[in-house]
Design goal:
Blueprint (H helix, E strand, L loop, with lengths): L26 E4 L4 E4 L2 H12 L4 H15 L9 E7 L5 E6 L21 H5 L10 H8 L7 H4 L1 H9 L1 E2 L2 H17 L16 E2 L2 H13 L2 H4 L1 H12 L7 H5 L4 E3 L2 E5 L2 E5 L6 H12 L12 H21 L10 H4 L2 H8 L27 E6 L5 E7 L57 E5 L2 E7 L5 H14 L5 H6 L3 E2 L7 E4 L4 H8 L5 E4 L6 E5 L5 E5 L6 E4 L1
Parallel strand pairs: 15-16
Antiparallel strand pairs: 1-18, 2-10, 2-19, 3-4, 3-11, 4-7, 5-6, 8-9, 9-12, 10-11, 12-13, 13-17, 14-15, 17-18
GO molecular function: glutathione hydrolase activity; leukotriene C4 gamma-glutamyl transferase activity
Subunit structure: This enzyme consists of two polypeptide chains, which are synthesized in precursor form from a single polypeptide.
Organism: Chryseobacterium koreense CCUG 49689
Length: about 550
């Protein structure tokens, strides 16, 4: 029997556009039907539509990503990049790395002034912040696992861009908040610039529709060559951008061996370098397993301390060891080995916090940003896919390609623009993540699939910069150790620590009793409004699946 649970619905009826009935569905329990969870209801519906057309999970994830590029411009994209983790119903595991790369004219010190000081404005805003986009190449790399042609998979996005859709209240507020940056960094006016956006305003993107049609007609060359490529380079020349036609033409995705490890009899499949997420997840879960988490209560002081200390040690290793494995020594096997982690854990003390100074040099950190987007999908045949993509910051570099209609990333900021200087997410890096032409910048994105007895059990991921690995860590522990239902696992208050700064972030509503108890042990806390927006699918005992979209945003579930 199929159950459909509608926790929250928001609908609007307008007369000027086709896509005006937006329903945000937060949870669906279904058996023998595919499920799609993403950051926007119209994108989830695009994926579900493809499943109904006979497509599989990989068809659906392509369609959902293209749709997000239209309806979720703050992070959905064709001008950025990401990572995909897939598990086919025959047990085959694979990853696709379509992370952005540094242009051929990039250099190690390109963001330093004459005195050697890092200029983070240049790495975070405007044309010089742009890495070579990988998303479109990633969609085409996914196509070999799909069943339907790209022409059909991209059509829902074209329709959304061409006919328009009403912006949500959240999107309207974000557009208004960023208007100053759009005005500053775009010479030609964009469709995103107007006096004031409000919920229900129709966003029509004709230029983006034409860009998508060129991809539909000419394949990946419709983006990396021809008119779209020319428009990207023309945009570069309006400022200090360094991308070239050669950069675009030569971009390549990388299919990498998945990060696979055991956690309490479950097989975790996640992303390897240049994502730090898979390594961090392995380190945190393994270190936490040295204690009896399953005997503790979720968000209790005892459980939080164990998990925070695991996070602290893992992020210290991130800064020192992690980077693009094609350019620096890959030390994954050492970092996740039991011997190394048991030695790392020896300094854990239940009666006090471990000072971060004991695991690395203290450096002042800036405030974090949290803009990325995640999709979790399972189809009725048992294929599972988790994909996380990003422009990096909110609306990326704030630059829209004039005549092509899409935002470009500011992903160059994810390099160590100067070893020891933190990026916009507060992450510190060293030489392993320094800038070199063709190099992929280190990422925190952590799309993850958990298998039980070889079959998908949990599909999970989230946006949130450096909070991504810790949110995925907590989500898995919530289900596996604390036995929470998927809705609680996603929506209960989360916490985050990343070695530097010293403080532990906690969402509003986090138990004050736990905070007070941990403060007595020397922990410092900072209260924040939100950590991530987790999209999770969990298989239940009766052979069905429960899909949950995070209550922190407009995230929504759709069913085949």
């Amino acid at each position: 029997m199929k159950k459909f649970v509608l926790l929250f619905a928001l609908s609007a009826n307008f007369v000027f556009a086709q896509f005006t009935d937006i329903k945000v569905i937060k949870e669906i329990h279904s058996k023998d039907r595919g499920l799609v969870v993403s950051a926007h209801p119209l994108a989830s519906e695009a994926g579900a539509k493809v499943l109904k057309m006979g497509g599989n999970a990989f068809d659906a994830v392509i369609a959902t990503q293209y749709a997000l590029a239209v309806v979720y411009p703050q992070a959905g994209n064709i001008g950025g990049g990401g990572f995909l983790v897939g598990v086919k119903n025959n047990g085959e595991k694979f990853t696709i790395d379509f992370r952005e790369t540094a242009p051929e004219k990039a250099s190690r010190d390109m963001y330093l002034d004459k005195k050697g000081h890092a200029n983070t404005d240049l790495s975070q805003n405007g044309r010089l912040a742009v890495g070579i986009p990988g998303s479109v190449a990633g969609f085409f790399a996914t196509l070999k696992y799909a069943k339907l042609p790209m022409e059909k998979l991209i059509q829902p996005a074209i329709d959304l861009a061409e006919m328009g859709f009403p912006v949500t209240d959240r999107e309207a507020n974000l557009l208004n908040d960023q208007m100053e940056f759009f005005d500053r960094h775009n010479i030609n006016k964009t469709v995103f610039q107007k006096e004031k956006w409000k919920a229900g305003d129709i966003l029509v993107q004709k230029d983006l529709a034409e860009t998508l049609k060129r991809i539909q007609k000419n394949g990946a060359k419709g983006f990396y060559e021809g008119k779209t490529a020319d428009l990207i380079i023309a945009e570069m020349k309006r400022g200090n951008g360094i991308l070239t036609l050669n950069d675009l033409k030569n971009y390549k995705v990388a299919e990498r061996k998945p990060m696979v490890f055991d956690y309490k009899g479950n097989e975790i499949v996640s992303m390897p370098l240049p994502s730090s997420g898979g390594i961090l997840l392995a380190q945190m879960l393994k270190m936490a397993s040295f204690e009896n988490l399953d005997k503790l209560q979720q968000n209790s002081a005892e459980a939080v301390q164990i998990m925070v200390e695991a996070e602290r040690r893992a992020f210290a290793d991130r800064a020192e060891f992690m980077g693009d494995p094609d350019f620096t020594q890959d030390q994954t096997s050492m970092l996740i080995s039991d011997e190394y982690l048991k030695n790392r854990w020896k300094s854990f003390q239940k009666n006090e916090a471990t000072p971060s100074s004991e695991v690395g040099k203290i450096i002042s950190q800036p405030k974090e940003s949290k803009e990325t987007t995640h999709i979790s999908i399972i189809d009725k045949e048992g294929n599972a896919v988790a994909v996380t993509t990003t422009l990096n910051g909110l609306y990326g570099s704030k630059v829209v390609v004039s005549g092509a209609g899409f935002f470009l990333n500011n992903e160059m900021d994810d390099f160590s623009i100067k070893p020891g200087v933190p990026n916009m997410f507060g992450a510190v890096g060293g030489e392993a993540n320094s800038i070199k032409p063709g190099k992929r910048m280190l990422s925190s994105m952590t799309p993850t699939i958990v298998l039980k007895s070889g079959k998908p059990f949990i599909i999970v991921g989230t946006p949130g910069g450096t909070t991504i690995p810790t949110s995925v860590f907590q989500s898995i522990v919530n289900v596996v150790d604390f036995k929470l239902n998927p809705n609680l696992a996603v929506n209960l208050p989360k916490f985050h620590h990343q070695w530097l700064p010293e403080s532990v972030l906690v969402e509003r509503g986090f138990p004050e009793t736990a905070i007070k108890e941990l403060e007595k042990k020397g922990y410092q806390f900072e209260r924040v409004s939100q950590i991530g927006r987790t999209e999770m699918i969990v298989m239940d005992e009766d052979g069905g699946a429960i899909a949950v979209a995070d209550g922190r945003g407009d995230d929504s579930v759709a069913v085949e």
